[in-house]
Amino acid sequence: MKRHGISRLISGAFALLSFTPLLSHAEFPDRPITMVLPLGAGGSHDLHARGMTPELGKILGQPVIVKLLPGGSGMKGTEFVANSPADGYTIIFTHNYFDQLVPQIQKVPFDPLKDFKTVARINMGTPLFETHADAPFKTLKEFIAYSKANPGKVNFGHSGVWSVLYVPALQLVRAAGLKVNFIPHKGGGPLLRALLAGQDDIGGLFATQSRTHVKAGKLIALAVVGNERLKDDPDFKNVPTTVELGYPKVTATMDRIVMASAKTPPERLKILRDAFEKLSKSQSFKAYVEKIGEHVQFMGGAEYDKLRPEKFKVFTGLIKSMTK
Q: In this structure, are 117 and 157 located in the same domain?
């Protein structure tokens, strides 16, 4: 009887051990997840996050809490996540310029390609150059002429050095031979507020954040950065591109991406990736994104990770061309 009892005890122990990974897998997440935004409030990432977090909370069964950590051209928030426990409970909603460009310019205590893995790409965004209604110019051509006639007097706002709103601004200024004052802000939200207040004369913004102000006549869109008009956008479809206006090298596309520590347990990373894929198919989330003037352009994390090394190299070439 004793041997039989011991045998049953051992069998039960093995059964419990074999079931433990399943329990561990099923328990994640068992508390709120923090999603860091390395940008300020009111920008396009913040607006997207407002639509993402309620749906993600339903999918994951736990709240997803946004933590704004702007500063250091996105590196303050990125470093925070890099230094957080690799348990899947701290992720970052960032973009390709902060992931693939800025770490090549600044000395950072992490390797973006080795220390982070992509959870998902949400969509892509194309910035516009915009000005306020009281500015002494109403078109890009007029801005160029005014800046040349008033060297050093125009304030050109951006969302941080080497950010997606800084690079095309620098490209334009160099291509046109202008002298302006570059004004850094901790994200697109603070930049928008400075432009509306007339503190900046021109800046880069996304349609997502500037739409209501353009429709109200407070802001004027001067040009879409790149070679494609926003032809499907009723409020910006007639805005010319920088390529059309004679500046073929003034381009920028932002990938809005969610990332986690590369050391996140594979089963937890899969749960996060699956959750964001479900989010991309959510009709309420799609409707929200379309309401703010964007579209869901989902790409799985594993697929996007395959592209990151080549994108990194492209930015290496861009940096060399802009720092000659």
A: no
Q: What is the mean pLDDT of each run of 10 residues along the chain (324 residues)?
A: 46 44 65 97 95 98 97 96 98 98 96 98 97 98 98 95 93 97 93 97 95 97 97 95 97 97 98 98 97 94 98 96 86
Number of domains in the chain: 2
Phi/psi region, residue 267 (left: phi>0; alpha: psi -120 to 50; beta: rest), is alpha
DSSP run (H or E) holding 70:
none
Phi then psi for residue 320, to 5 deg, are -60, -40
In angstroms, the CA 237 to CA 233 distance is 5
* 20/15 Cα distance (integer angstroms): 9
Q: Which of 157, 248, 239 is CA-nearest to residue 197? A: 157
Contact (Cβ atoms closer than 8 angstroms) between residue 131 and residue 219: yes
Percent helix, percent strand, percent coil in the chain, to nearest 5: 45, 20, 35
Is the separation of the CB atoms in 125 and 47 below 8 Å? no
Beta bridge partners of 118: 259
- CATH code of the domain covering residue 48: 3.40.190.150
| pLDDT for the residue numbered 15 | 45
* CA pair distance 205, 319, nearest whole angstrom: 22
Distance of CA 164 to the CA centre of its chain: 9
Radius of gyration for the alpha carbons in the chain, expressed in angstroms and rounded = 23
Residues 156 and 215 in one domain: yes
Tell which phi-psi region holds residue 99, choosing left (phi > 0), alpha (psi between -120 and 50) or beta.
Answer: alpha
How many other β-carbons are positioned within 10 Å of the β-carbon of residue 295?
Answer: 11
Tell me, yes or no, if the pTM score tops 0.85: yes
**In this structure, are 213 and 283 located in the same domain?**
no
Domain span at residue 197 reads: 128-224
β-bridge mates for residue 158, sequence order: 184
Q: Which DSSP letter does residue 45 get?
A: H
